Backbone:
């Protein structure tokens, strides 16, 4: 690694206090008779859920109607949410920090009561602290979530790399790191770190290592002051499958790319004056991950060096391959931009790893930026697409794709890991992936089986006038549909097309 030195200082007297009111939760006294009735009700509900699961186990999706039938069954059986709760709303803990959080994953339990500065990762039940420094909110511990993409290593207290468990130190390569953060949090950018250090400098401390490093674990002469609660400890990094410098430095990958294919990382060293940024091979390095709350990150990111046909979204630095079709460029990958207002977009199953693999799911109004439907060519609707790109209309889609009962495989990606036995040939470079959808009632369906992509056009005929049109490919066979059954409240994938002037 090579370093770019930085120097900043901190005045702890000016650190903003960040607390929230606590709430006392009282459990009601329940009479024995009422308790027995409650237990009987829970047993009945549990049995009903088991019956539902057994009835759905043999369902397969072969058409848009099948997919919506599965969604309807889930919705009618479980209500408008995919999670089942036996707790009353009054038993939920309330937090100044809390935002609109999703239900926990199946089998995951979060504590009913959390400290004022804590939150629970609904993917695995892990509890983390968070601290506010200036206008940023950071996680106060490294992430301990196992991801299904990229490379992940774990180390025990003896600094041996061992099979991963929640209690161990986790190290992520760049691809894994970008999927490691909980919903509502992201891997920090280089600019996020620079913003943190600039804020510290404004308070009078020009050496971030002294202010941010833990008071323990470092060598006696190199302890930090931990003025902000980040408590950065020496964990080292993994390089080429070996744990390196675990007692003398702490390294953190950012989501920002550097020269070529390298990624920027920041390192805290024994001697704080040596702290600085460097660039690393994203496939050979593994570091700890600290996440930053996403709604508080607002930046324009410098795009990396890229191929002449690649699209870099300057809003978050993500790079998308493109293909040339119908006389203009299209994205060859689903959009994965997370807007600051996330009420109309989701990762499938609220798992950020699915966003990394399949792109983000958007309801139609979010995808369109609340613009009305159109079949103009070009549509002229930027919506949530990057600058210079737009949501393609049905007329535009018709230039490269078409309803087919036998040619759907040409439009699907060649990834057997994603499509399974329904893998495509990618004959037209569209590379559809089976990202599934979120129904208007909140159920996630179709992952690994169905690809659904919005158009900017609404239907004019029966039976769904006014509903937006989308394209629908399934794993079973090579059928490709155009449909409008789901309605604008559903959330699906999005491809953008480059602007042009006919």
Residues:
């Amino acid at each position: 690694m090579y370093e770019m030195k930085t120097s900043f200082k901190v005045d702890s007297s000016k650190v903003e206090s960040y607390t929230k009111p606590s709430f006392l939760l009282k459990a009601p006294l329940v009479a024995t008779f009422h308790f027995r009735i409650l237990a009987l009700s829970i047993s009945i509900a549990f049995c009903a859920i088991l019956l539902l699961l057994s009835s759905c186990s043999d369902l397969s999706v072969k058409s848009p109607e099948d997919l919506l039938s599965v969604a309807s069954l889930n919705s009618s059986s479980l209500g408008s949410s995919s999670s089942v709760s036996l707790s009353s709303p009054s038993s939920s803990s309330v937090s100044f920090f809390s935002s609109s959080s999703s239900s926990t994953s199946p089998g995951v339990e979060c504590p009913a009561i959390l400290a004022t500065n804590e939150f629970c990762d609904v993917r695995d039940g892990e509890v983390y602290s968070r601290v506010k420094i200036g206008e940023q909110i950071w996680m106060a511990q490294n992430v301990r979530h196992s991801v299904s993409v990229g490379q992940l290593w774990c180390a025990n207290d003896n600094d041996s790399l061992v099979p991963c468990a929640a209690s161990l130190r986790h190290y992520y390569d760049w691809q894994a790191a970008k999927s490691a953060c909980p919903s509502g949090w992201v891997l920090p950018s280089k600019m996020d770190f620079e913003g943190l250090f600039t804020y510290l400098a404004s308070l009078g401390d020009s050496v971030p290592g002294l202010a941010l490093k833990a008071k323990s674990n470092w060598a006696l002469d190199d302890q930090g002051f931990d003025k902000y609660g980040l408590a950065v400890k020496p964990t080292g990094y993994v390089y080429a499958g070996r744990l390196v410098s675990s007692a003398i430095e702490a390294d953190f990958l950012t989501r920002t790319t550097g020269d070529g294919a390298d990624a920027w990382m920041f390192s805290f060293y024994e001697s704080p004056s040596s702290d600085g940024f460097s660039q690393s091979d994203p496939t050979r390095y593994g570091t700890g991950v600290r996440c930053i709350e996403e709604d508080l990150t607002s930046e324009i990111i410098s795009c990396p060096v890229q191929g002449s046909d690649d699209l870099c979204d300057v809003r978050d630095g993500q790079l998308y391959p493109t293909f040339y079709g119908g006389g203009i460029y299209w994205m060859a990958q689903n959009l994965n931009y997370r807007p600051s207002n996330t009420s109309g977009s989701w990762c499938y199953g609220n798992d950020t790893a699915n966003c990394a693999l399949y792109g983000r799911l958007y309801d139609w109004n979010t995808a369109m930026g609340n613009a009305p439907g159109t079949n103009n060519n070009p549509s002229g609707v930027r919506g949530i697409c990057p600058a210079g790109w737009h949501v393609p209309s049905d007329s535009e889609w018709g230039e490269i794709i078409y309803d087919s009962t036998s040619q759907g495989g040409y439009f699907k990606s060649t990834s057997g890991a994603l499509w399974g036995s329904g893998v495509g040939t990618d004959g037209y470079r569209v590379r559809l992936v089976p990202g599934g959808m979120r129904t208007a009632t909140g159920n996630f369906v179709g992952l690994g089986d169905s690809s659904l992509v919005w158009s900017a056009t609404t239907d004019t005929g029966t039976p769904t006038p006014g509903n937006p049109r989308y394209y629908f490919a399934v794993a079973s066979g090579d059928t490709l549909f155009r449909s409008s059954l789901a309605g604008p409240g559903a959330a699906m994938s999005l491809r953008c097309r480059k602007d042009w002037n006919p």
